[in-house]
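note to self — DONT lose this again. spent like an hour looking for the file last time. sequence + predicted structure for the chain T wanted, 182 res
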Amino acid sequence: MVKELSPSNIYTNDGRLQRCPSSRSTRTHRGNSSSPNMIEALVAIALAGNILQFVQASGKALIALRTIWETSATDENVEIEVIAQDVTDLSQRLANNSASNAIQSTDEKELQQLAQRCEPVARELIAMLQDLVVRSQGTKRRIEVMQKTLKLIVQRSSIERLLKRVQDLRDQLSTRMLFILR
């Protein structure tokens, strides 16, 4: 009589067949039995978070779209442009006043150099914001509003970066002027 060998059969030294538990047994791994459920829960939470981000971004885009449709530019962009224009005007006046004085202290020269650095950054910001203003009328306006809104969304980080630079330079100008006045 020939006995088949299988992974679940083992022969002892005396030749008897002994059954071993197979790898397909009903053993459970304590830590792993809940892992699939936990992973599914985490995936569901991540998906819900992504959906929420999409809805939030879409809402912001629709608000910007409506504002641009009604006023040709967002209120925020108009305010940023006013700040940038103010810094440009201030830096031009400082540069002109400093240039007219024949005798300048070291602080005044540094103020003039700082004013000269401010102007190009502020002008770049103004140009970027002016490029986002809707100018067309009629049927072309719809297309331009959508284009400008998408452009605004894409350029938002660049606008914020330039605004921060303008604000930092404006703060330096203010500090330098206060120091000179003391």
